[in-house]
Specification:
The chain is α/β, with parallel strands linked by helices. It is built from eleven helices and 14 strands.
Amino acid sequence: MANDLVVVFGGSGFVGKQVVRALAKRGKRIRIAMRRPHLGQDLRMLGDVGQIQLVQANVRFPESVDAALEDADAVVNLVAVLHEKGPQTFQALHVDAARTLAEAAKKRGILRFAQMSALGAAPKGSHYAKTKFAGEQAVRELIPTATVLRPSIIFGPEDHFFNRFAQMAQTASTIPLGGVPLIGGGKTKFQPVFVGDAADAMCAALDRQDARGRTYELGGPGVYSFKQLMQFILAEIDRRPILAPLPFVFAHPLGLLIEWTCKLVPFINPPLTSDQVAMLHRDSVVGADPNAGRIADLGVTSLETIEAIVPTYLWRFRPYGQFQTRQTA
């Protein structure tokens, strides 16, 4: 309902900003709980004057979480990481943090709780997938009415998929015989969903009575193999590095080598980890859970495509940037 107070954890990230923007458009009052609110003053501009409040909270300290939920009507949990580094582990952020938020929400009698998970979340598989599933279970045990959203890869101007591989291709194209690995032959399938559509689904999950206690799989209008996505990226940025098939048996040790090397260099995020390789063993498309709803069930039916959105922000990886137009076949 309009004028509800929604507390968002993880509201300063790529998906979080769009969720905050979508909530603001629906007239919600928003409280963004973050570790360093003084660094997020720009987030206030996502809504009207006074509509968005920033408060200090750390998921490792339950007292700060409880204080952030004072007088709240709903909670959104977007806290997540794509790779582990230092204390930012999958267990700490996907499971322990989710349980801490759910415990605080239950204590305050908050029944509307939206948990962002991921397609592929399961008790078996990569460590990322297992902790995402464990986080869902931790929330559901405490708040049975919680709604879980499982998106495929999410795309948009600040995404971690198209931007990352476009940058890899840009770098590889400057090296003689440089290439981009197609892990597992590039056969893994994805169903990318636009960040704005995922944000609309999150808002609907909070508002719709029929969404309580349900799980929804979020996918866009198209299904692509990893190889097809890489070919699309290369065509958009006009780069021609070698697409080199890399069997899983070699990709796993390569991922281990890269992540251990990056651990020795502060402030560098690994472009590939062994756990991300493990994630590629499973397709990321809707339909894995026959009991789960779809994004259309939340009223989000006009979905954006990668062809319409991705070119608007990958131009900076072209040889001549915005001054170069894509050559059509």
